[in-house]
Input
Amino acid sequence: MSAVWEHRVDRLGLCHACRRGRPEDPKMSLPCSRRTVIAGLLASGVGLASGRMEPVRASSEPLRFGLTPVVPDDRITFLAGWADWIETQCGRPVEFVQRSRYREILDLLLQGRIDLAWICGYPYIRNRSHLGLIAVPRFQGRPLYQSYFIVGADSEIERLHDLEGRLFAWADPDSNSGYLYPRFRLSSDGRDPDRFFRRTFFAWGHPRCVEAVAEGLADGAAVDSYVWETLALSHPTLITQTRVLERSPEFGFPPIVAGPSLSERERQLIRRVLLSQVQDPAGRSLLNELNLDSFGLEAPDLYDDIARMAGRLTEGSGA
Amino acid sequence: MTLPLSSYRLRLPLSLSIAAVVTALSMAVALGLQTLANLREDQGRNAMTLGHAMAGVQIQALRNDDVWLAYSLLRGPDGGGDAVWILVDQAGRIFASNRPRRFRLDQPIESALPWLPQAQPQVFDEMPGRVSRVDHDEVRRVLRLPLYSDDSQVGELIALLSDAPYLPRFREILIGGILVTGTILLILLPIGWLWGRRMVGPLVRLAECMGRVGREDPRRMQCTLPDDDSEIGRLGRQFAAMLSALAQKETLEQQMIQAERLAAVGRVAAGVAHEVNNPLGGMLMAIDTYRRAHPVDAQTERLLNLLERALRQIQGSVSALLVEARADLRTLTRDDLEDVKTLAQPNRVKARVSLRWENACDTAIHLPAAPVRQLLLNLVLNAVQAAQGNGHVEVRITTEDHHLTMRIENSGRVIPPEQLLHLFEPYPASRPHTQGLGLWVCYQIVSQLGGTIRAEADGDVTRFLVSLPLTSESPV
Output
């Protein structure tokens, strides 16, 4: 896993010191944060002049909202509409920041380069002490989702173990449903997730995993049930080329979390805005577009299952 | 009407159509092949450009083991287009392809493409891309682009190029060719048909006319023959010339036969007249002698007179058959000819015929006067008789080229062709009621003067043409 991680960072041209750092350890990334920021700025095209962000900002400063591919993040028009809606509700402009890797968003969040982000439960539980839980989306009435093992619609694979020796696509090394859970599932069966498949690769995002399976690049993948179900509505021809092989137990839905830079007052404000979104007609139609019911307030222990799974897997691989 | 296949009316449009079809199809095939060649060239060049453009990122993808990056690049916005792209890593295993179901990740390239020759180790600065021609599994050409990073090969980009994407265009060109051919045929077939008819029409008429030669009199054959600048027109003119030569020959033969017949008749008449005249002279002399030697009473005198008148009548009839044209020694003058006009005047008035008289002779003509006068008078009286009842007669007399030419025309009843053949014979069967020696005498005079006489019918006009050669200074 760490090998893959190193490649990923290297590709983005970030500093070499970070390559050795364990991604779940924020303390390790701090010493090189400055260089990371500069490189990140270069990569993202933002001018150097903006420098490090201010700890306290005027209310006219945009609220920076990081998005990961846990949600369909390719819908620019929808995102612009949502940003406008949040701005009218809380009086601050909203700027969505998108990265294809979960880790990049997490780094920006931990460094205070963005204020809040919609991330996966797995990176959340690893950085729980630094992040504040703002709201959890409710999908099909509950703040829960699953991981789906999917294969090609016309594939002869009937059980998970038929995937042995096949090609498998991971969503992201920081994804619960697309990486942590499938590895945990194999480990629970006593299989080594690094040797079970003939070859694995990262597709960087659940929709791409679906594409990889639909197009035959991979024999199987594990994807976020919310993404799969939402794609089934928006891209039915893509989804009909795949078939769900196995469904996982339910986990806490990827949450919206605040980074250390966001003050408690602002956290309360944005939480209030999001929780009330379902009551506003415009907000409700935006939620409909997201294929979500509402945003709800949940206790952090919603993600304990993921934490336990991560813990056990780390022990298992460490042993 | 059924036409045999050999008819030009079928062969011409068919030939045109076949030429059009062959031309259009050859054009379509040539265009198609040229387009195919151009498209192949473009395909090779595009693949090369694309390969070079992708190379940098693909090297990075190989180095970072980023399968999705490599795949999404190869897949492109349209699924990779026509070509099959394969990225092979350093170990010769497939790293990505835009046909992921067929070329699986991690599959050795030797097993995926067993026919692909081993990549030759290349010098770095050599042109890396090369399109070589193969013919395997619908793959026509292969582009191999070794990927180098820091002077060492890290992988290879392979593009399999096929002609499959061009087949629809090829088909379009062919269909276009067929449509054009069809349109051309729609225009050419009727044109060819009409042209064939136009070309063949004169030939058919010519053939029809030729078929009548030998069965019909060439002098009376009415044929519409082609007469233009084409070869068929030349043929028509040649045929018309041949026809007129035939007609001339026929006329000559007829004239010869007629002349021979008339000459024979003349000899017979002369012989008979001679044989009759001798005893006739003897009998008349006997009557005369008897009168002188014996006193004759009234009854005998009446008898002798009867005998003598009968014998004189025989003598007159016989001498009418014997024309002695050269007996007269007087030279013909203009007045002799004008006398004829005066002599015919009473008959003309009686028959209510208008006469147009044109006499271009004003000097003495070296011909015997009496026979020519008789000749002209006979012909004019004949004409006046034929034209009686508000007809008209026209006489023209000229001397030219040492010939006296007389042309006597009249309107009225036309002489039928079969009568023309026997016109100059004595006592013709067609005119038993007349004495019928007029034209016979004319003919005798003309032949004795060495000239020609000809009768012809031209519509409702009957024309006699007489041509008499002038004798030398002193008439015989």
Remarks:
- Chain B touches chain A at residues 60, 64-68, 71, 75, 100-101, 104-106 (CB under 8 Å).
